[in-house]
């Protein structure tokens, strides 16, 4: 574990370095839907074997999958009456909420897990069955796990390093970075925002790198990166609030400290996880394909690039999985052998190169258009309220006071900050004028 943590620690340094130098932000300006769709499609295709292996364990996985389909697709718009107690009226009354679209995963897990519990206590599921909730390993882990356990850095000892592992982790970092850029654009699309500015992309990579460094120091054994299934959940629940994500992060930190709760979640039967994974991957694929609505699909150029990148990404990776690279140099074999088996990386590089060196299409035909609905009110779009990338006003004032900071790739330029502040002032002026007019009318 010391070797894995140390090698991961060295490899992930490339992420904050690329973010601080601004290289990632410059590259992201040339990554459009024609590149993003093959990357995310290959990501979902690559998880098919894992989905099949987990769902093949037990038929309850199909029940979980169909339950999620029921909540996400069929019952999404239905409002359920929920009783609440009104303190002002001092009585119970009913309010209607779309709980199926707001909590599809929570409801799906709870219902199917309860079915597994009933099957366990009635012995409808035989001893040792995958759908039982009293698996010996899970119960043992739950019993032996303390209620509170504070994770400590360097838990397994001082880090050690191995060149082959460092090269392997570095290759994985490049694949994760390609996926992250695609995830950023998908998240922007769901949030009805324009493409992330270069400074935001740079900051995101710096933060991802810091997260990976912390994971390595704490002995997690893997890095941390964007998780496309969370974007799929955002598309279902229609919740894209930054505060919600922050609260979810706090919840996960508490779950790591209150280890008994984490051990309880690990008792979820594996087939249920298979059904959840299948639904999440389906949603990711659907959201990624929706990027094509901004691409001119009448052009054979776009069709060819998308088709070639997906098929070649699968073909090249499959070939090197069956026929490992053998150059006589172990380090070269480890690095390039890993890179050439990552479908997303192969397909993404092919799509990126072809989309940017091949002519015959304008940027708009390639899908480089604003994700905000063009029918929306122009003034509303212009306000800082609609800009999910705008920094707080006090922070903007600080950067304007020390303008040399705006030359850093992770900070918006001075011109961008001034534009945001001007829009904010105009927005406040309009709001104050409306308030004064309403008072006069009264």
Automatic annotation (TrEMBL):
Q: Which domain of life is it from?
A: Eukaryota
What are this entry's molecular-function GO terms?
transmembrane transporter activity
Topology in the membrane? Multi-pass membrane protein
A Pfam family hit: Xan_ur_permease
Keyword terms, alphabetized: Membrane, Transmembrane, Transmembrane helix
Q: Which InterPro entries match?
A: NCS2
Subcellular compartments: Membrane
Signal peptide range equals none
Major place of residence: membrane
**Name of the protein:** Permease
**Organism source for this protein?**
Caenorhabditis elegans
By which gene is this protein encoded? Answer: svct-1
